[in-house]
Write a structure and sequence with these properties.
It contains twelve helices and four strands, in the order βααααααααααβααββ. It has a four-stranded antiparallel sheet.
Length: 484
């Protein structure tokens, strides 16, 4: 017999060995795949370089023979590229001429704006100079200055009073008795109370000196409000005086025609801004055109990119013999050398692919085998076949079962059936029930019984079995798949 734990250890050992093989195989595959990818990258790069060379030769009309559909498509794209480049160059020339014209127009608008500004400014200065010499204007100006100064002084006093009120009101408001009487409006006409309350309030007022304190507190609160109202009135007077001064100035300016000159200046400013915006828009379009031309002359334009892709795709599909024939149709030996290098890279890529194929197949098989072995182990554990009461007949060779499963000689269900068929469960001995008395007529645990479990003194009971016995005979136990 083998214990279930022993069988599980054997399974673990074999699965661990498979995992170790998988790790080694994965490392080998990774290294070989990296080499294959590097070779492919070199092959792709060499193909791209060959495509660039062939495109240059096509553009220079140095391909004497072997022009195929891909070459014709590339030539058509190169023609479109040349046409686009010509159009861009013409656009650049036209834009430069347009910018010169726009700059000249802006210079004219700038001169007009400056002249309008001088006319409006000179007229305004003349009017104000003449106006300042009149006694009426001088009187208005003096009145405006005086009222503004008075308003400022009034506002300063109001601000000082407001600050004093905030600092000086605190002692009054911290006195609870004073605030009680104040809030009841004691000492004011609106005060109302019954005889008893009035008497008590009078007593409190006399106690804290309320009569003088409430007059001072009332004046403290009212003074700041009064000064604030006075400041507002003075500011209104100052604003009115300033308005009269402005009205006099506006009337004098209007009589001299200055508003019309200001309107002409505004129009000149608008014309100058419009001219500047036209130049900026033309410069933005010009810069975009330069970028498009730069891409074409650098070979990064859509036409060149598509032409290269077309040729590279064709070269990648062509056999080496065709590539060699195409190279012989040109006047340069450079493409012959590139084709030779490309041939070597293709050979290397193919050789690495051949080495990878069996390893990839081996890995797929190994992973499948591991999955089946681990499935068998999972069933083993889920049925608790590794418990202390679980054992297997000596005829079970778990290694052989796994080998047949991994080779594909048996399917999973057959392998599991074989494991299940050899499984046994040991029945642990029953413990005696504790005696309930020194002697009895029968029952569980008595010295002698006429028919019960576990008879004593070695005497076999009339109708039971000894606790050491079991089902099925033999070494004790019963088959999980069989009967009694």
């Amino acid at each position: 017999m083998q214990s279930g734990q022993s069988v599980l250890r054997d399974m673990d050992s074999r699965i661990d060995a498979l995992r170790a093989q998988a790790h080694v195989l994965a490392n080998d595959l990774n290294a070989l795949t990296a080499r294959r990818n590097a070779a492919r990258a070199q092959e792709s790069g060499q193909t791209r370089e060959l495509a660039v060379l062939r495109l240059d030769l096509l553009q220079a009309n140095q391909v004497a023979s072997g022009i195929d559909a891909a070459d014709q498509r590339a030539l058509a794209l190169l023609t479109q590229r040349a046409q686009t480049l010509d159009a861009l160059n013409q656009t650049i020339v036209n834009s430069e001429a347009q910018q010169q014209s726009l700059k000249a127009a802006r210079s004219a608008r700038l001169a007009e704006r400056d002249a309008a500004a001088v006319r409006a400014n000179d007229a305004a200065i003349g009017v104000r100079s003449a106006l300042s010499a009149t006694s009426d204007y001088q009187s208005l100006q003096t009145n405006s200055l005086q009222t503004a100064q008075t308003a400022k002084q009034a506002r300063d006093k109001a601000a000082t009073a407001a600050t004093d009120r905030e600092s000086k009101r605190k002692p009054y408001e911290d006195d609870r008795l004073f605030m009680y009487l104040w809030q009841r409006r004691f000492g004011f006409p609106e005060y109302a109370a019954n005889t008893l309350t009035r008497a008590l309030d009078q007593w409190v007022a006399h106690l804290i000196g309320y009569d003088g304190a409430h007059r001072n507190y009332r004046m403290l609160l009212a003074l700041a409000d009064h000064l604030a109202a006075h400041a507002e009135a003075q500011e209104a007077i100052a604003n009115a005086a300033q308005s009269q001064l402005v009205i006099a100035e506006d009337a004098a300016l209007a009589a001299a025609g200055v508003p019309a000159l200001d309107a002409a200046l505004d129009a000149a400013d608008a014309a100058l801004n419009a001219a500047e915006q036209q130049i900026e828009a033309a410069e933005v379009r010009y810069q975009q055109t330069l970028l498009e031309r730069a891409a074409i002359v650098a070979g990064t334009d859509p036409f060149t990119t598509e032409a290269l892709n077309v040729i590279a795709a064709q070269l990648g599909r062509e056999e080496l013999n065709q590539l060699r024939a195409d190279a012989q149709g040109t006047a340069t030996p450079q493409d012959d050398a590139m084709v030779a290098a490309l041939a070597n890279l293709r050979v290397e890529t193919g050789r690495l692919a051949e080495q990878l194929a069996p390893l990839e197949a081996h890995q797929a098989t190994l992973l499948k085998q591991m999955a089946e072995a681990e499935q068998l182990r999972t069933h083993f554990r889920s049925n608790a076949y590794d418990s202390d009461n679980s054992e297997f007949e000596s005829g079970l060779a778990i290694g052989a079962v796994l080998d047949r499963l991994l080779r594909g000689a048996v399917v999973f269900n057959d392998a599991w059936e074989e494991v299940n068929r050899h499984h046994r469960v040991r029945i642990p001995p029953m413990s005696r029930m504790p005696r309930t008395s020194s002697g009895g007529g029968g029952g569980f645990g008595s010295g002698r019984s006429s028919g019960g479990f576990g008879g004593g003194s070695g005497t076999r009971s009339g109708g039971g079995f000894r606790s050491g016995g079991g089902f099925g005979g033999g070494g004790g136990g019963f088959k999980t798949g069989g009967g009694f």
